[in-house]
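Re: beginner question about structure tokens

> Can someone show what the tokenized structure looks like for a real chain? I only ever see the sequence side.

Sure, here's an example I had lying around. Input first:
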Amino acid sequence: MQTAGRAESTQRAYRADWQRFCDWCESRGHPALPASPEIVAAYLAAEADAGRKVATLRRRVAAIRLAHRLCGHEPPTNSELVRATLRGIARLHGAAPQQKAPALADVVRRMVDTLDRSTLRGRRDRALLTLGFASALRRSELAALAVGDLEFVTEGVRVHVRRSKTDQEGLGQVVAVIRGGDYCPVAAVSDWIAAAGIGSGSLFRRMHRGDVVSAQPLSGHSIAAVVKRCAEACGLDPAAFGGHSLRAGFLTSAAQSKASLYKLMEVSRHTDPKSVMRYVRRAAEFEDHAGEGLL
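And the corresponding structure tokens:
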């Protein structure tokens, strides 16, 4: 499926979603292209019964729509039947996304304290946690970072993000990360690069047995696994944390420290202030509360 202009992760998801729909149609003797609205509605109902989340179903609808458009067919997803089916599933199963817990600044420090800095794995994970938090990068952006994307300066490091969710044309974005104290992300990254002997290529890499650094980059799922492992190591529920926890943790912590909306968006690179405001509201939800002193 040709999906130029979309993030690589989105392209992979669309291809997988389209293939799944094709396999479902083939197993039941139905044509997948073009598909009728009745078939798509039945498919969505079957997927919902199988426990698929509403967000997943919406993405699969988008993949089916795109495949039909690329082949010159009227998308069956435009029909009221398909739309009504999706609305009904959302009402029945709920459409609110499950958010991962934010790894606030104190949580990140606790995570880092569980690491063995005498090992390369410990140094890598320290750099990953602190830079991931301080830069508020998405996990896919962290996984894609190369050593050459880092520009070290006196004040800290400029992180060059080559492509992101909000920069589909690949024009590039820059996130400034300032130096810190005992948990300085700039120092942690510099230490990891020097200890691992990495001069170019992927910044965060998989480890082989024996604490050996490989040439293979960490995937987004592997980054989430590091966060979960460190959360569990400091006594937290690993299921509550994931790759997004670092980004959410920075925004919530910065909002608690009264950083302006403009400055938050400067780091997060959100294009819609509404997306950032939910972190601001979370940070201040108990401040000047309307119910204060009532009971």
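Each token stands for a local structural state, so reading them left to right follows the chain. The chain has two domains: 8-93, 105-284.
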